[in-house]
Amino acid sequence: MLMNTYNRFPVTFTRGEGSHLFDDKGKRYLDFATGIGVNSVGHAHPKWVAAVTEQAGKLAHVSNLFSTKPGAELAEKLAALSGMKSVFFSNSGAEANEGIIKLARKYSRDKYGEGRATVVTLKQSFHGRTITTLAATGQEVFHKNFHPFTEGFVHVPANDITALKALAENGAGSTSGGVCAVLLEAVQGEGGVLPLQADYVKAVAEICAENDWLLLFDEVQTGIGRTGKWFAFQHFNGIKPDAVSFAKGIAGGLPLGGIIASEKCADVLKPGDHATTFGGNPVVCAAALATLEIIEEALPDVTAKGEKLMAALRGMDGLSNVRGAGLMIGATVDAAKHGSARELAGKLLAAGLVCLTAGGDSLRLMPPLTVSDDDIETGISIMKGCL
Ligand SMILES: *Cc1c(COP(=O)(O)O)cnc(C)c1O
Fold first, then answer.
1. Were both Cys, which of 171, 182, 265, 385 would link to 120 (CB 3.0–4.6 Å)?
2. Could you tell me which residues are beta bridge partners of residue 362?
């Protein structure tokens, strides 16, 4: 049996096609959850299927002791899309963030020696489930039961620069000493679809620049077109991260994550410093190259589609504080009217719409980036029927 770690909904999916899923009884669902933003180009896209099967028939894995064409090509593509320089591939978001934390600590140690190991993250953030990325995660609910954690993390409130300013003035106040980096989600996903304010991000970037702290964006959920730009940091004028992590939507359903480093820290990690066996094998990289091609076509319409969906949600009974960017959308559920967000997601699922929750009290919608206007309208009418 499967370990009972997921509070699963009572549905078994057997097949997907575009924006739709089908369960084992043949019932059709509209998918506005996309496996938590992973199926970014919908299900079984013919281009994606062709790329994966072709590569699987050629070469599936050789280890990172050798280079492969899909891996090299994908790294070049990601560098171009992000305006950054070097790429390390991992298998998941948490593993990508482990890598970015190692990169930040090594950057600082190379330059300043011991004593600058602390990574500042935000309250209500989510960075993964490993012991170290849980330490980075600024939500107590995920911490209980799993102490002790990796040292060297401090959580400050989002959209309030005073705590970060105080850290810069007074030192990090952690057992590992001074700060080496700040790690942010441009829109906090698991925390509740909570966007950061532009003036706050600008202030963080200024403090990072003044202190030579690395500015890191966790783009695991927001990246690869989800918010209407290739990377969510690109919404903030003039903001240039030192590195970003990515995962979820990159390979359209196969496990791939990684980090992209700017010129400044492109060569911090050297042979022997960091590695992974599976990360970025040719099959997942071929899937990612096909996914990026499909997203390239869909991307110009993502913002308008998201706005259409958000406008409809704003008119719905028992939903409030509709927010988000592109096709990453949250709405607070009025518990008195609909019960918990989870109960509402269950009701929508039964009505044929697959949705997510976030932050405990909110509904979260992440349709495929390729969703059609008709499918958005269908989703809206299913929601109207349930609300
Ligand atoms: C999902 C997520 C992670 C963790 O990714 P996994 O692939 O589940 O390890 C990390 N950061 C953010 C922002 C996420 O949304």
1. 182
2. 332, 358
**Nearest partner of 161 among 124, 205, 131, 117, judged by Cα:** 205
**Integer Cα distance of 106 and 111 in angstroms:** 8
Edge-to-edge strands of the sheet including 353-354?
13-17, 20-23, 28-31, 353-354
Is the peptide bond prior to 148 cis by the omega test (within 30 degrees of 0)? Answer: yes
Beta-sheet pairing, 86-90 with 28-31 = unpaired
pTM of the model: 0.97
Give the integer Cα–Cα distance in Å for 341 and 333. Answer: 6
Find the DSSP H helices in 27-130. 34-37, 46-58, 69-82, 93-112
Name the CA dihedral angle for 308, 303, 362, 27, rounded to a multiple of 10 degrees. 70
Decide whether any atom of ligand 1 lies within 6 Å of the 158 Cβ: no
Cα separation, 341 vs 57, whole angstroms: 43
Range with lowest mean pLDDT among 57-71, 165-179, 319-333, 369-383? 165-179
Which numbered atom of ligand 1 lies nearest the CA of 222?
13
Residue in the block written with tokens 């370990």: 3
What does the pLDDT average to over 103-121?
96
* Assigned token pair, 29: 């669902």
With a 6 A CB cut-off, is 93 part of the ligand 1 pocket? yes
Is residue 99 a contact partner of residue 279, using CB atoms and an 8 Å limit?
no
Find, among 370, 249, 290, 299, the residue nearest to 47 by Cα.
290
For the chain, the C-alpha Rg in angstroms (whole number) is 21
